[in-house]
Amino acid sequence: MNTLAYLIPIALLLGSLSLAAFLWALKSGQYEDLDGASWRVLDDGDGKPDRH
Amino acid sequence: MSCCAPGAEITTVAEGGQAQPASEELWLASRSLGGGLLQTDLSVPGVHCGACISTIESALRARPEVERARVNLSSRRVSIVWKEEVGGHRSEPREFVSAITACGYQAHLLSSGEDEGDELLKQLIRAVAVSGFAATNIMLLSVSVWSGADAATRDLFHWISAMIAAPTLVYAGRFFYQSAWNALRHGRTNMDVPIALAVTLSYGMSLYETIGHGEHAWFDASVTLLFFLLIGRTLDHMMRGRARSAISGLARLSPRGATVVHPDGTREYRAVDEIRPGERLMIAAGERIPVDGRVLFGSSDLDRSVVNGESAPITVGAGDLVQAGTLNLTGPLTLETTAAARDSFLAEIMGLMEAAEGGRARYRRIADRAARYYSPAVHLLALLTFIGWMLVEGDVRHAMLIAVAVLIITCPCALGLAVPVVQVVAAGRLFQGGVMVKDGSAMERLAEIDTVLLDKTGTLTLGEPRLVNAHEIARGVLATAAALAAHSRHPIAVALHDAARSSHLEGEISEIPGAGIEAKTANGVYRLGSRSFACGTIGVSSGLPEAILSLGGQELACFRFEDRLRPGARESIAALHELGLATGILSGDREPVVAEIGRRLGIANWRAELSPRGKVDAVAAGGRRVLMVGDGINDAPALRAAHVSMAPATAADVGRQAADFVFMHQPLTAIPFAIETSRRAGRLIRQNFALAIGYNLIAVPIAILGYATPLVAAVAMSTSSVIVVANALRLRSLGSATASEPPASLLQPAGSAR
């Protein structure tokens, strides 16, 4: 019973952390272009403007 | 992989017909971000892989004024953030469009008022995340209870579950509560009523049990139920949103504004809503006419295909009336406007479309039809169980517990998932084959059709003339004609230029609007155009479009053109007949042309010279379930009136908006492909319903007899959902085995469609 007293809060806390992480990712627009994201992984460019 | 290369060659030369947006229009459409930065969103329908992304992005980033450029592959858009001024020079947004076009992609402005950022989808995903979090945590606690936690621990776990479940029900359940409340208030019932009732009752009952130190609580069931149903609802919403944004993102038809000439000679670029009747407008060659008007000065050729679907342009001069949406091809025109934008031809078509809406509104989705019988049955069953146990035992608490168990077990969890999952998988398959679906119900309707009616120009044919007698003409003459044709945007000139590209002509070349092209060279005066213009005589017309090349009034060659059939047209019509469907052509074009196409494709039932209203009547006649395929504005009302409709991606904006399906690639085989996929999806949906009913037949007696502990309910509910999802995923494997994939050569980017 004593172990439960801190194990349950820890479990809930970890769960809410991942929930918060997901909500943050959603809010920052990371799910807006799933098709593009799968291609961008393969792109070696650094995403900076290339000025020759 | 150079999958995008073929598009590049074709697009750059065929640019003639589709005018690029004007600079003022781009400024008007740009959003100010503050600090001298502007953002412009363009639709690039041709992007479809990683190479396209990096090509476009690096082309744009190479420009000094561009701050950021990002391509969104899902919605096929590029958003460009750029500086208003670089080094004291005002930036020119038109150059972004040119930069994209130079890479071989078409770029268009988005329709106004089409700002995305789907708020409801985000809310739904958040609700899924929250309910998923709650479901896993409560399930963890529940497993401990089921595996034998004793009195005090069990109560603690129940209390924690209750505290997690309460905010979840409010936050994630609000979609169902709102929808159920709406339905009840209007005296109807829908799928959400039993859901809301089951969730609320099970929570209330569980709380009551927890307070009374009871053995069973149903918190896990109510939250898991919400979780599964929200997944179904999110999938449903996602499918619609994705296709809709891609469809609305393509080219638009009505211009955003026009240059107004004031009586004192000053010019001003004004938004189309602010143009009043009686004002003077300058329309340059290549611009679309924004509102109805009368020509004051100038003459030109107008592409009126949006009005009547006819491919050949007509000549207009002073005094002629012109309609909004038509494309001015060859010469500048000065117009006097006769109607404001809201009274123009385009607005009239919109009115006709609204009137045609009735036929569509009567259709009820399969899930709604099921819900109409399902929810009263479920409520009745729960009520009967309650009464039955009251009669047998007389214990209100126990009878209530069992009634709640019945409600939970019968809750349409599998049903809520059955339809959306199948539709999302089917829409995904169609999307890979180049067909976009706007709405799940469109697939249900497509599976039911018995007749296919097709428009001619732009649907059965590509709507672009092609030179047919090139082999009869000497190479040198053809090259001279092509060199002249390079100076015009007239579709025939574009076709001629395509036929022989590498050519050059020295001399003073000018286009005479409404007549043809003239070149003063060392050899004499070359003229390319109608017979009366080129030779000064009135010749016999063969009915087909033709152009004459003359030198000093002497005919050198006669070029004949015809509209090309869309690839796969013959095979597609044959496939439709094989599927047991009747076919027909509805066209606004002249009779001989339509009859010829009908003969070539084996379609006996055709009608020509139909007005937009005539098409609506033809679609509505006879009480058949019609699939209408068309592309022009003149087809839009008929697309709306038909049971279900389809348009090519090259269609006019209004046509695409009105259609339920849009096919991205050229071949017409998309039609039988979509019908087959929809029929298969319909079969799977029916199977899923059967599975869900079968599950109820087993689970409901268990619940009524009082054996449904929370453990049994959780297992039963999850199993049924998993089975339904697994069945839906069969569509993938089934599809790739039986339906032939479109060959790779046909999967060119939509940018090559012109």
- Ranges of chain A with pLDDT <50 over ≥5 residues? none
Count of helix runs of chain A = 2
- Structural class given helices, strands, pairing of chain A? mainly alpha
| Alpha-carbon distance between the two ends of chain A | 67 Å
Written description of the protein model:
The complex is a heterodimer of chains A (52) and B (754). Chain A has 52 residues and is an all-alpha fold. Chain A has one domain (3-42). Helix content of chain A is 63%, strand content 0%. Chain A is built from two helices and no strands. The longest helix of chain A is centred in the N-terminal third of the chain and has 26 residues, at 2-27. Chain A is elongated. The mean pLDDT of chain A is 78. By secondary structure, chain B is an alpha+beta fold. Chain B has five domains: 11-109, Alpha-Beta Plaits (2-Layer Sandwich), CATH 3.30.70; 117-249 and 349-393, no CATH class; 257-343, Calcium-transporting ATPase, cytoplasmic transduction domain A (Distorted Sandwich), CATH 2.70.150.10; 420-461 and 566-673, HAD superfamily/HAD-like (Rossmann fold, 3-Layer(aba) Sandwich); 464-564, Calcium-transporting ATPase, cytoplasmic domain N (3-Layer(aba) Sandwich), CATH 3.40.1110.10. Chain B has 27 helices and 29 strands. Chain B has a seven-stranded mixed β-sheet, with helices on both faces. In chain B, strands 9-8-10-16-11-14 form a six-stranded antiparallel β-sheet, covered by helices on one side. In chain B, a hairpin with a 2-residue loop joins β1 (31-34) and β2 (37-43). In chain B, α9 (219-248) runs parallel beside α27. Chain B is elongated and about 110 Å long. The model of chain B is unreliable at 1-19 and 736-754 (pLDDT under 50). The chains are: A mainly alpha (52), B alpha+beta (754). Chain B: One of its GO terms (biological process) is metal ion transport. Chain B: InterPro entries: ATPase_P-typ_cyto_dom_N, ATPase_P-typ_P_site, ATPase_P-typ_TM_dom_sf, ATPase_P-typ_transduc_dom_A_sf, ATPase_P-type_domA, HAD-like_sf, HAD_sf, Heavy-metal-associated_CS. Chain B: The chain crosses the membrane at residues 124-144, 156-177, 217-235, 373-392, 398-422, 688-705. Chain B: It is found in: Cell membrane; Membrane. Chain B: Its EC number is 3.6.3.-. Chain A: This is Nitrogen fixation protein FixS2.
